[in-house]
Amino acid sequence: MAFRRRNKSYPFFSQEFLIQNHADIVFSFVIFILIGLMFEATAKTAILFIQPQYNVTTLSPEGEVTLYHYGWKDSATILFYFFITIILHAVVQEYLLDKVNRRLHLSKSKNTKFNESGSTVSFLSVLSDFLTQEGYLLHPSSLWENYPHVNLRFQVKFFYLTQLAYWLHALPELYFQKVRKEEISRQLQYICLYLLHISAAYLLNLSRVGLVLLFLQYLSELGFHIARLFYFTDENHQKMFDLWAVSFVFTRMATLTLMFLAVGFGLARSENQGLDLEMGNFNTVLIRMTVLLLVCLTQSWLLWKFIRFQLRRWREFRHEQAVRKKAAPKQPLRTLKRDSLGHHENGVLKAENGASPRTKKLKST
């Protein structure tokens, strides 16, 4: 199973060999784990990588319900889906993005951004569809009621594990995709912020708040990456960036509002106050203030970068307009000079043609 066209063979374990064959190497690890399910001696170990662990069966009005909580064994599941995400990324890159890149003939910098936007849209569109099914946005009080939210449904726990796997896979993809050095720092900040916030929501049992905030963030991200994809196909498509700018500011305001509502007021009035590691309760003043400070600093930093970008874009637009206005009145003057010279030459020619033979003879002498 080859994900990359092999135009040239490279020495084993060289840099180019790893970049060209990374998906095949990872795929062999996945096959090795799946083969372990076939044998009774290794099945229990292999299942740790594939299926979420720490399940608890409880009774509810609907019957028996299986819920999950987190533990150290989740790292094995995250590792397995980390491999799966790398393989899926290679498939999308090879059979979709590379084919579009060949038709568009993009530059190297635009090619990197196009690959980033294309892979992000393909993954986030699926995740946003899942987040709309939870319904926490319609009932904001459910974000802090019955805290701590230790027991999670299978879909919610699987979502968080795959999210951590997805953003962890983005780190080696910087190497596999040969991202330019100028872009690495920006993407590292972007990836680390996602990993920090998702891990905090998962480990502090703020899963409901995390789901809502991720839903809002992913909608904004989808708008930006879709607008950038349309811009790369046709540079006249710039109005979608204006729509994204409105959604970006709205997302920042909604995130801050929900965090103050859920953590600042909801959890502060909750009956379960104090630190209890066995029960998974982290509802203390220090932790609440730390979470609020982290989110506020992140949203303020994003807004600051957004405002600087928009101001720079506005200045460049004003500068282009000023240059065009200065160049506009000069063009008629040049055309007038050319017209006047043309008329003068035509007049001289007519005068010479209309002159008498004696005059022409005198001029020739």
From TrEMBL:
Looking at the keywords, is Transmembrane present? Answer: yes
Cellular localisation: Membrane
Q: What is its main location?
A: membrane
Keywords of the record, alphabetical order, are: Membrane, Protein transport, Translocation, Transmembrane, Transmembrane helix, Transport
Superkingdom is Eukaryota
Q: Which GO terms describe its cellular component?
A: endoplasmic reticulum membrane
What is the protein's membrane topology class? Multi-pass membrane protein
Which residue stretches does the UniProt record annotate as biased composition, category Basic and acidic residues?
A: 336-347
Q: Where are the transmembrane segments?
A: 21-39, 78-97, 188-205, 211-231, 243-265, 285-304
* Domain spans labelled TLC: 104-317
**Disordered: region residues:** 328-365
Q: Name one Pfam family in it.
A: TRAM_LAG1_CLN8
Q: Name one GO biological process term.
A: protein insertion into ER membrane
Entry similarity comment:
Belongs to the TRAM family.
Which protein is depicted?
Translocating chain-associated membrane protein
Native organism: Lates calcarifer
Q: Which gene encodes it?
A: TRAM2
